[in-house]
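Structure ticket #2291
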Amino acid sequence: MRTKPTWSAVASLLLHHLPLFAHAQVSRSAKRGLVYIPNANTPQDNSIWDSSTSDLTWYYNYGPSPSPNFDGAASTFQFVPMLFGAPASSSDTTFLTTVQSQLSAGTNVSHILTFNEPDGTTATGGSDVSADLAASTWMTNVEPLKAQGVKLGAPAVTGAQTGFTWLQNFFTACAGKCSADFIPIHWYGDFQGLASHIGQVRGTYPNMSIWITEYADAGADLSDSQSFYNESSQYFDRIE
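Resolution: structure written out below.
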């Protein structure tokens, strides 16, 4: 995650399918999701993401609870809760109980995300959590959800090589007690770098699904950003 932009960013889900919605007026894609960051300057954007002309099916907002704009029977969005970082106390299980409350209320929570860029700093939007602390937090706040049928996303490390090292240290600290179902990817760079990074992640974790939950061609102008999105989304759709 980088410094929060003034617009909402679209993320793509790879290799795993969330439920589609039969009443949509367009063909919705299980590979299309939204990183939702509310912007008071453009509230009209909220209706775009959840409209009948949108192909998005799910969203996350860096937190454990749904956004008010999309929390209700009229919304077609499926919410994906996120444990952004580690709580101050090792006995704090707020994230776990929050998600369990949603499940008890009948909310369809089929997946969760965890630890936003734990190998990054808070100055760049990361959670700055050590691998050991993340592992112990996972065991108390995340792993119990597995028994309730929730698919668990591994920590979403940065696209730097330090991310691979951090994730390896995390799974080592888990000692087999962190059963992640998929690997989120963050990437800020050109398409060639993105494709290469995806290949490296798939080579490192060949038996796990991949979600692209943050990506952009950082610093590109509007025209180049549009070209980057078109090329990358077509590439994502070819991956099975």
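Closing remark: The two ends are 26 Å apart (CA to CA).
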